[in-house]
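Structure, all two chains, one model.
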Amino acid sequence: MKRLLILGAGTAGTMMANHLRHQLPAKDWEIDIVDEREDHYYQPGFLFLPFDIYTPEDIIKPIREFIPAGVNLINEKINKIAADKNHVEMANGDQLTYDILIVATGAKIAPEEIEGMNGSEWHKSVFDFYTFEGALALRNKLRTWEGGKMVVHITEMPIKCPVAPLEFSFLADSFFKHKHMRDKVELTFVTPLSGAFTKPKATDALGHLLDEKKINLVSDFAIEKVDEENKKIVCYDGREVPFDLLVTVPTNKGDEVIGRSGLGDDLNFVPTNKATLQSKAYQNIFVIGDASNIPASKAGSVAHFEAEILTENITRYIKGEPLKEEFDGHANCFVETGGGKALLIDFNYTHEPVEGTFPFPGVGPLRLLKESRMNHMGKLAFRWIYWNMLLKGTHIPFVTAEMQEAGKHFN
Amino acid sequence: MEKVIAGKTVSVNDEGYMTDFKQWDKEIGLAIAQEQNINMTDRHWAVISYLQDEYKKEVPLSIRKIRNSNVVDIKEFYQLFPQGPLKTAAKIAGIPKPASCI
């Protein structure tokens, strides 16, 4: 009996457990999945929780509900991966040996990377919305906040769901309008990049949104520290942005287990072949989702497309066949723009998001890179798809792992 | 689109960033630097080589990378390339500026 071990029962790990239990004969392969937590969070919901659009019940379910029969869920903390010995050391002293390891330990915020960020103002006037606790604390704050300077801020790239901070700004604009207090809020978007949009086609198509919504932009802002006392963020070049309410996306890092195991880069992301998803250091270790260092977006849709290719590659690896070098960085994301509208973007390593139709070339019904109510309905419907299809590894009809070029206006 | 820089025809995007790193050479880098009003010194070139090496390894550019580079500290980096040093240095190096997905 051989053992395949999956570390992390988030979006990517859970999908792999479901795919592989179908693929690998139970008489030959034991499959175990390890996660220290009991709850699975629908992370896209963290964007909606602060604005009272979703409730905690909408976005939390037990991990156990999504692990298929025939896969053991091990609810323990991991100490480290001993890759040279093909085993994982658990915090309780157990050793789990493996033939194949899938690392799906994700990414998480590290506010301690910036001086003053998670000090005395943390979750008082300085908030994140990339954790359940942060999003909930921000919801409670916004319920009674009377206005002032709201600053939405990205610390450094890469981050999970790179468009979420912009979506947050757009939803905040709608939220305050709806509460008849938009005139009491000065909304500013602060980014380390050269602008809110950085790709030429998206800049052309969407550049007007910030003006339209009266959101100020501060770009090329490399944060040095949060000045808690004077409530401002300070850039290395000396610029300062004052805030009453700072909504920041802290540095994102891979799990500390990766660092402790010596398997990561300086942000604890695992160096991974971007086309095959095999780790660069060990042939029997594969990496999926936010845990890897591949230059794709850190997003659930990316993990979904990766899962289809990784499943194939693991069966090939077991048979001793060459791996498929087919992962193209495909991502497909709904982007909330406020006022009950959203965009849809579809892109990969080599193609930036462009206008067009999706999923049927020339037909749609969804329009790419254009605001519409239908795209917003798509984003809301996606929560159902996530819980009922995506995690279970059910193929989403008409949406292929490799990005389609037909129906897109590249020129 | 194409542009003539230092007498050579190279591919660039709308913002003047080169789109084919293989076309880059030091004379082109120097000409782009002049457009940006930067007088290149050995220190500037040390940073440019570092960024190019990281780009070849597919490591994304960030201030953190600069801080941990042992080539230059953040203060000097801002002195060498004032105003948006990452995007300015990237342009001179013939590599894409740091970007998001849209």
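Chain A touches chain B at residues 156-158, 162-163, 192-194, 197-200, 202, 206, 219-220, 222, 224, 236-237, 251, 265-267, 274, 295, 297, 331, 333, 335, 345, 347, 352-353 (CB under 8 Å).
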